[in-house]
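Objective 1b: paired records.
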Amino acid sequence: MSERTEELRESFAACDENQDGNIQYGEFASLMRNLGAEMSEDECTIGFTEIDTDKDGVISLDEFVAWFTDNV
């Protein structure tokens, strides 16, 4: 496992407030606010939907890692 992947796993775990193995919309919105992102509700929804590629209503670790490695 690469150092970057391990960092992303740790970031994911910190965002997963209820520790259920997924990031729900509320956790994502909280993360964006904590990062200082000034996003409207619509912008937050669009961001969440972009990362949730399988459209199951949550962001999995795999989706989180894929998004950050492809877009950052």
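Objective 1b, second protein:
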Amino acid sequence: MIHMFNRALLFQDSDSKACADVWSTLKKNHIEYEMKTISNHTSFGRNLHYKQSMSIGGGGMGGTPFGDTMNYVYAIYVKKSDMALAKKVCGL
């Protein structure tokens, strides 16, 4: 079991495809991992994006040039004891 005292950060990126490549490789090689998804917005920012996508007529409101986009950072952790093997099989 992975917990915060025996884990190490293996990979961190905002590209979901790159992250999926890493965790699928870990899974294929039977290496235990934990993934965290971190938003770059506060709850206020998430609510603002949600409200911008709603309108009275039921359709969505398009993005505005003044709004920023929702971005996520994906972090993959493995056990410290598995770090060398995980780096090797993932090519990191």
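The two ends are 23 Å apart (CA to CA). The chain has one domain: 7-56+67-82.
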